[in-house]
Amino acid sequence: MTEVDLDAFILPELTELGPMPVSTPMRRAASQLQKVLPPGWRVEVVAVPPRPGRGDLPALRLVVPEL
What we know:
Blueprint: H1 12-15, H2 25-36, E1 42-48, E2 57-63
Antiparallel strand pairs: 1-2
């Protein structure tokens, strides 16, 4: 079996925000969006830093391939 180093895929600025739950409505929406994107494009679910009066909320991030 091939070993994959998952730490290589984690961006340093996202590690401080904490893990997101594995299965959420946001992740399901990201999965559906990923299916219709062109090859090379990615959808990520990330935690948005809290704002005054609001808790931390998940957000979708669209990552376009480098040209």
